[in-house]
């Protein structure tokens, strides 16, 4: 510990290692680590856990960025500058590898700092693993595995929320239901893999046809839905036209002659989930009955 103290005092002027604490005793270190663990346990969100850890560790090491890479992707603290030298640490609990924690620093890490970081990593790993598990479970519960879109259960929650906002704050929204036409023949004639690729392609079309405030869902099979914020009747028509146009332009979807039928409806403040859904579904039925590849309001 004395080494840490000497090191921080010697080079703090350069801005890399800040004085960690005036008094470094084993008792202090245990108290600090305990405080860190307590704070880390206040969140199950990976980004938050990393931010809490970064704030604490900044007292020891003036790093310019902190990143955590795992099978769940890359998370980094806000305003991370990743241009300086990366110092990579594997994080594991026993044989379970969690991922890599990367400190970006303009200055070299001394051995004493590295040792201290290893101690802090022991405080980080359990709360981080809990957050990773939570993220996986949340994904399983709310996302469609094939397309990564929100699933039906998430749709039910979103729809209730939108109806509540519509009733209380007169915030209008609309529901659009979409179903692919002639999709069965893609699977039957070209195989399930091409069928899956078509569904993924259509998901991209939907995501690129809406604004960030709108949401896309896959119910299963070739059925999708959109919840559109603040729409006018014409907005819905514009969105539907945009989707059908992108489907026509998609090399994959045009190759397999897949189009989409669309039904939509505007919400009103008296609507229940069943009522609004039934109206959009009638619109979709009308579109199918009118020969497919078109959009109908109800
Ligand atoms: N590749 C793939 N196919 C799926 C998936 N889920 C459901 N399907 C298939 O989607 C097809 C849905 O067919 P329908 O909507 O009934 O048929 P369609 O040809 O689109 O008929 P219309 O809607 O009347 O134009 C069925 O063949 C299902 O087996 C999936 O995850 N991947």
Automatic annotation (TrEMBL):
Annotated CDD domains: GGDEF
Signal peptide location: none
Enzyme class (EC, first level): transferase
Cofactors (names): Mg(2+)
PROSITE patterns reported for this sequence: GGDEF
InterPro entries: Diguanylate_Cyclase (IPR050469), GGDEF_dom (IPR000160), Nucleotide_cyclase (IPR029787), Rev_trsase/Diguanyl_cyclase (IPR043128)
Single biological process term from Gene Ontology: cell adhesion involved in single-species biofilm formation
Catalysed conversion reaction: 2 GTP = 3',3'-c-di-GMP + 2 diphosphate
Span of domain GGDEF: 171-298
Annotated GO CC locations: plasma membrane
Domain of life from the UniProt record: Bacteria
Gene3D superfamilies to which the protein is assigned, alphabetical: 3.30.70.270
MF term (GO), any: diguanylate cyclase activity
Keywords (A to Z) from UniProt: Nucleotidyltransferase, Transferase
EC number per UniProt: 2.7.7.65
Coiled-coil regions listed in the entry: none
Protein name: diguanylate cyclase
Organism: Pseudoalteromonas arctica
């Amino acid at each position: 510990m004395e080494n840490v103290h000497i090191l921080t005092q010697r080079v703090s002027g350069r801005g890399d290692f800040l004085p960690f604490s005036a008094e470094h005793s084993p008792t202090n270190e245990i108290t600090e680590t305990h405080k860190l663990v307590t704070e880390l346990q206040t969140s199950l969100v990976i980004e938050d856990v990393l931010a809490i850890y970064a704030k604490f560790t900044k007292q020891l090491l003036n790093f310019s960025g902190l990143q955590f890479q795992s099978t769940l992707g890359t998370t980094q603290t806000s305003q991370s500058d990743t241009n300086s030298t990366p110092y990579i640490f594997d994080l594991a609990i026993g044989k379970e590898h969690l991922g890599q924690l990367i400190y970006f620093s303009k200055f070299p890490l001394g051995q004493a700092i590295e040792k201290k970081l290893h101690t802090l990593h022991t405080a980080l790993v359990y709360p981080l693993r809990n957050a990773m598990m939570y993220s996986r479970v949340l994904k399983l519960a709310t996302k469609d595995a094939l397309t990564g879109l929100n699933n039906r259960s998430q749709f039910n929650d979103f729809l209730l929320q939108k109806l509540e906002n519509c009733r209380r704050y007169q915030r209008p929204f609309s529901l659009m239901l979409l179903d692919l036409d002639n999709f069965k023949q893609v699977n039957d004639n070209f195989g399930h893999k091409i069928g899956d690729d078509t569904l993924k392609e259509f998901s991209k079309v939907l995501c690129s046809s809406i604004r960030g405030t709108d949401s896309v869902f896959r119910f299963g099979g070739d059925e999708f839905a959109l919840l559109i914020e603040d729409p006018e009747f014409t907005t819905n028509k514009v969105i539907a036209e945009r989707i059908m146009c992108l489907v026509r332009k998609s090399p994959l979807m045009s190759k397999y002659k897949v189009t989409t039928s669309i039904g939509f409806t505007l919400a009103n403040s008296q609507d229940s989930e069943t009522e609004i859904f039934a109206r959009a579904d009638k619109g979709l039925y009308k579109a199918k009955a009118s020969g497919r590849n078109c959009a109908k309001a109800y």
